[in-house]
Amino acid sequence: MPTTLTAFADVTTSDSALRRFLHGLPGVDAVGLEARAAALGTRSIKTTAKAYAIDLAISMIDLTTLEGADTPGKVRALAAKAVHPDPTDRTTPMTAAVCVYPDMVATAKAALGGADVKVASVATAFPAGRAALPVKLADTRDAVAAGADEIDMVIDRGAFLAGRYLETYELIKAVKEACVRPDGTSARLKVIFETGELSTYDNIRRASWIGMLAGADFIKTSTGKVGVNATPANTLLMLEAVRDFKAQTGIQVGVKPAGGIRTTKDAIKFLVLVNETVGEDWLTNEWFRFGASSLLNDLLMQRQKLSTGRYSGPDYVTVD
Fold this sequence. Notes:
This protein has 320 residues and is an alpha/beta fold. The protein has helices spanning 15-23, 30-40, 47-59, 72-83, 105-112, 133-145, 157-161, 165-178, 201-213, 232-249, 264-277, 293-308, and strands at residues 62-64, 97-100, 118-123, 150-154, 188-192, 218-220, 254-256. It is globular and about 60 Å long.
């Protein structure tokens, strides 16, 4: 199937056109959505399948530190953990990425030393997104220039909730353009909606379509900095959006639930959502990620239990 947005060219020509399109999307059946997410979460995954799921989940983690107290030493330690999550077992997969603030990108890049782990950077005045457009673009360009492979941007929730949909779309497009390097290659762009602040499932669906139409490589639930972050229901809704978008355009977009996913059991529930909603094409870290650093520790403990028959406990796993 050719990949094209030609069919949607008229949708983004004006705020009114984009509004008509977004408000013309099918309304979300909240009860049905939550019931399906809950039902899929009851699937029992055991033995060999569980071992495979644990390794897959480890390989999908964006190992993250986004604190004001971050130091180069902490970022180097995180990079080492990303490359060798369990130093006692070198068969453990590497994580997908290390995610840091822009000023720590160069440190992370150097610490990884060419390992097959991406460096992701938050940008656009993360986590609130309350800054002027030139500041947001400078934030993005600085991270890309420092070597970021991926950019995790936040939308202006105030603009979106006020119904300024075209402004939200144009921000994402501008950041996407700022991800392009001088050699013509581009950092991949993850667009964070902060679903906990969007109030309704209909808003999450609309935000998903704005992000995809504007060129997002990934759509992401949350910053992890608010009370409600990734849930099975909002992630299922976003998976349905990327499925429908690919069906209409041929363009594949990734999904990243972030915040609140802490246990192996939780992670497996999300992998079942992926498999049952969008299929095997998304069951890779190129198209699905977990923004959940604390999750890695539980995955490692469960992995050790499967291989040794003993539950090692948290003292045997490095704590971030």
